[in-house]
Amino acid sequence: MPGMKRGNIFLIGLMGAGKTTVGRLLARRLKMRFIDSDHEVERRCGVKIPVIFEIEGEAGFRLREQQAIEELTALDGIVLATGGGVVLAEENRRRLAAFGTVVYLRARPEDLYDRVRHDRNRPMLASGHPLARLRELHAERDPLYRAVADLVLDTGSQSVQALARDLFTKLEHRWKASA
Known about the structure:
Elements (H helix, E strand, L loop, with lengths): L8 E4 L6 H12 L2 E4 H9 L3 H24 L5 E4 L8 H10 L1 E6 L2 H8 L13 H19 L2 E4 L5 H19 L1
Parallel strand pairs: 1-3, 1-4, 2-3, 4-5
Helix pairs in contact: 1-7, 2-3, 5-6
């Protein structure tokens, strides 16, 4: 694919932004391999992320996540949905920017809350105030997402199919412009 860095597309954004769902659709459309970094960490550990958080804490999970990102970004021709906190580590941001086109799926905390409030597999929302926590995470991470992103796409209330189509079109324009 002309104009792309190593032919990879890395999706970043907060939990519930649609990275996995949109990533699967985009990969299918582009005939690329789809990988979810959170699922990869779970596969390697043999347990779900909340268990990793419970046993090793967030720091232990972040170390495992960084190891996975190092290996996954070395691949070529993938669509990678990353975990929401992947941008917290400078090394992860550097690798994402160097080895692929980074797309920030941006969403308002209120929209994210509507999407993830019943999901029990979100250890970052285990507090008694998940919407407040999402607002904190957004305030903390939004500048990091923006700094590393080649493209920012607002998820809003559109369907994931429409979002994947919109992203495909935007990527196509970028590739043609840089060819």
